Amino acid sequence: MSRRSIIKGAGAAVVGSASAAHAAHDPGDRLATRLRSAVKGTVLFPRDPGFAAGHAGYNPVVQHAPKAVVVPADAGDIRTAVRLAGLLGLPVAVQATGHGISAAADGGILINTRRLTSVTIDPVKRVAKVAAGTRMRTLVEAAAAHGLATINGSSLDVGAVGYTLGGGLGPLGRKYGYAADHVRAIDLVTPDGRPLRLSPDRHADLFWAVRGGKSNFGVVAGMEIDLVEAATLYGGALFFLGEAAQRAVRAYPAWAAGLPEEMTTTLAFMRLPKAPSVPPPLQERVAVRLTAAYLGRDQEGRRLLAPMLAAGPELDTMGALPYEKIGTISNDPSVAPLPVFERTGLLRALDAAAVERLLDLAGPGVKLPFGVIELRQLGGALARPAAVPNAIGHRDAEALLFMANPAPAEQAGAVQKQQQQLMDGLEPHLTGGLSANFMSSADLAPEQVRAAYTPADYARLTRLKRVHDPCNLFRVNHNIRSA
Fold this sequence. Notes:
alpha+beta, eight-stranded antiparallel β-sheet
């Protein structure tokens, strides 16, 4: 049972056929003529069949209204689209799956990389070459065929490139750090449409910036990333109800503090709807879910879990897993697009005081909307600098806070108010920083974007933005503005 299961069940009743108003397409305008004559892939305008599907993303809280959608057939099409956008002064948005939508691509060109899905594994060098639109599931399965693993997240349906460039926080994090720490090279299309190969030895400033700065410096057409050896692991989830939930929550901080880096955990409050995707014992209940992924022997993993098992879980899905099944730990299902409102923050300490406060604000006795409030354990390799520095900061935080609530548009205000109340209640325990990959459309203000980086890193990013994208062509995102 995952946060997306909740979202699916609660959102089924609120998803309708919404359509955004788009500017009419003039077949004779310069954009249409140039794009259609120069792009080998698909070009879609507002009156074309498939236009809405071409710019639709996973979370329709943000509705795009671009002038055109380009679905490139290759990296050359990306370069063409970017060059034309620059010549015409149009902003450029990039999207693979739309899980990380932040700002609307209104009046610009949206490059949808969904067809660029190639993956090549070099099992000897333990390196994967990944195209721009590849889903994480494809990469995980390709690597697993050789007994290897990538640093994937809880969901395998997200785009591998976007996930990685925002940091990439997943079940192997405490052992191996962020996914961005393992990138070897990046193929970038710059704001003037040039292809650049980025690496520690080539265009090192941009290589640093893109790993954390995401789409602010161009379109990533592909990347090379190191893989690790992990054919199997021990993982799954424990679900607690009622008094057992409170026991589990109170036991969690001291237990988590003593874990080896080979185990990474999350703790979540889940308000579950009555829906086919929800196990009957958990329907219309408040459940506490503990997930764990352990890179070690099954017996040792079970021994490490003993203090949490003693709290009395209602359901236990822990077990040995081949790595390609790592997505079953959080069990995020593929779902139709539906509106989900999200907030995030970083906890200074994963201690008894912070967890007790969260229990007061979001525990079983509190009435809140359907959704999930999750703590992701950090520390270990996530707390150490990358071997090749990047812009992923705030490595001193001990936990990440993430909340997601599905709701129809008419309930958005009430849901966002309750989310803000939770953030305010936890404020003494928060660092004030944000994690780039978990930021949403609620985090677009300049001060919020700044909060995703250390002050020194943000200052460096703004200087690089001035050099490499002085016209801010790539601004349909959590925008880093020129110094």
